């Protein structure tokens, strides 16, 4: 394992002199490149879409729905939302899109997530491209150097992601109103928001850091039955962390896109009751 302290010029990892002298870069005969290729394409598509929507600065509110990309809306230039999460923390001096003030929290949480790190390390950096496939880099230092050493802040982004998920839950409750803000109604957008918030919470709580916080440092589970039970529940969610990571990524984009379509007048929100 590389520690970042090897002498200059010394190769590490699969290129180390102590490894077997095999001329082929790998012995896999399957289409191993499909998984990292599809991962890179999916992440790139979300990056392009979310960047466009984040910098757009408009078409993010169609009563009673607010895009999850813009919630909470913390700038004075936010669209007024009756009963919504718009708090003028940043005054008139902030002239950019209000989404830029809040997206840094869920972005930091996902960018430092253990699964997403594996995904974009393989998809974009080929480090490594796949199991049993040599990476093209001459040396490996892991996450021991800047900027990758900053991945260790993942637990703190988890703490920050919790209130964001709580506010999105509040937005979902507000979705049980009609466009005139009368309570006791439900539209297709309400269903979209319900699915999204369930997936957001499932992904957030399936986080490895959450599992470690609940039971990772306990020496005797028998002395902490409540934490042990919670640790077990989170562990079951954690088994599906990759699926939840992708599902919640897609659902939050779909929720934003749905609000965008309503805001530009593409169609009216179908009412259920």
Give an overview of the whole structure.
By secondary structure, this protein is mostly helical. 48% of the residues lie in helices and 4% in strands. It contains nine helices and four strands. The chain has a two-stranded antiparallel ribbon with strand order 1-2. The chain has a two-stranded parallel sheet with strand order 3-4. A hairpin with a 2-residue loop joins strand 1 and strand 2. The relative contact order is 0.14. The model has no long low-confidence stretch (mean pLDDT 91).
Walk across the major sheet and give the strand order.
1-2
Give the structural class: mainly alpha
- The total count of strands amounts to 4
**Helix share, percent:** 40-55%
The CA-CA distance between the termini, in Å, is 60 Å
Quaternary organization: single chain
Shape assignment: globular
- How large is the count of helical segments? 9
| Low-confidence blocks of residues | none
Reconstruct the topology from this structure.
Blueprint: H1 34-56, E1 61-62, E2 65-66, E3 73-75, E4 86-90, H2 99-102, H3 104-111, H4 114-125, H5 154-174, H6 188-205, H7 208-215, H8 225-238, H9 241-263
Parallel strand pairs: 3-4
Antiparallel strand pairs: 1-2
Summarize this structure as a short list of keywords or feature phrases.
about 50% helix; about 270 residues; mainly alpha; 4 strands; two-stranded parallel ribbon; two-stranded antiparallel ribbon
